[in-house]
Amino acid sequence: MNIFYKKPFLIADIGVNYYDIAQKEEMSIMDAAKLMILEAKRAGVDAVKFESYKTENIISSKFPEQFDLFKKYDEFGRDEFFELYEYCNELKLKFLSTPLDFESADYLDEFMDIYSIASSDLTNIPFIQYIAKKGKPMLLLTGAATLNEVKKSVRAIEEVSTVDIAIMHSVLAYPTEYRDANLAMIKDLAQNFPEYEIGYSDHTKSDPNMFVLTTAYNFGADIIEKHFTLDKSLPGNDHCHSMDVEDVMTFKMHIGFLSQIKGMKNKQPLISESSAKRNARKSVVAKKDIKKGDVITLGVLTFKRPGIGISPAEIDEIVGKTALVDIAKDTLIDFNMIS
Hints:
Elements (H helix, E strand, L loop, with lengths): L8 E7 L1 H9 L3 H15 L3 E6 L2 H4 L5 H8 L6 H13 L3 E6 L2 H7 L6 E3 L7 H8 L5 E4 L5 H14 L4 E6 L13 H9 L4 E6 L8 H8 L4 E5 L17 H18 L11 H7 L2 E4 L14 E4 L35
Parallel strand pairs: 1-2, 1-8, 2-3, 4-5, 5-6, 6-7, 7-8
Antiparallel strand pairs: 9-10
Helix pairs in contact: 1-2, 2-5, 2-11, 7-8, 10-11
């Protein structure tokens, strides 16, 4: 079953980029978060995503470099994220936030209907099962994972819940070099998890034509997720490999074109082909004059345009029959002329 209502479903991963936007624009971090939500909505995304955590819950204080980095971005809690959720509702935009600890997972459950599991928690089986028991669909990011690790995580979810799961190909490198994107892995995940949706969480720098994302979609990723910023030049963790408003619009334009040319799956003639089909195909034609009473042989027949007579595919229905009338050379054979 599909988690989202459209394909592709585009998620703007704001993450913690709003902190840097707040500093640049000299505004509160709440106003910056709302500004980014609004700009993402105007650009045409389907959802925005944040990160919810408290640093002391996810990083040992014995590792101060990591601890201090994450501590700069953990000011928001339940009330702030609920305010962002309500703002998204006003804009008719899906709100998501990735919980990185149990506390965040619990308060997000009050108002969020889909969970995202970070690549860093793919092997955190107790945490994954804790969330799965809440009974809500889950996006499972698979950066730096082996196939067996992904299978183990999926089985862990299935052991405690029947929730829908989307398996998200991702590469845990910031930014991801184009040569490391390995979009073919999307197809591998689709083969190994045919019962679940497949998606892609991208960390490459946005190429001018957004070919990475459109290729991911063509390879079978129905859910597309990418970091989002209003200024790629900012020095924060994720800005350089984020998409901006212009990138979103480019992607949406190309997806619209791809959807237009993709068309129907089942092979069948189109209305637009009707005229050309009649003119281009061949009909059974008299190669020479045929007299009334003559037995029709293959030697007196040939095949010429237009295709408005008997098709050459029905030649066996003609050979061996008797001409009921004189048939002049180059005449399209009609079943009324033979018996």
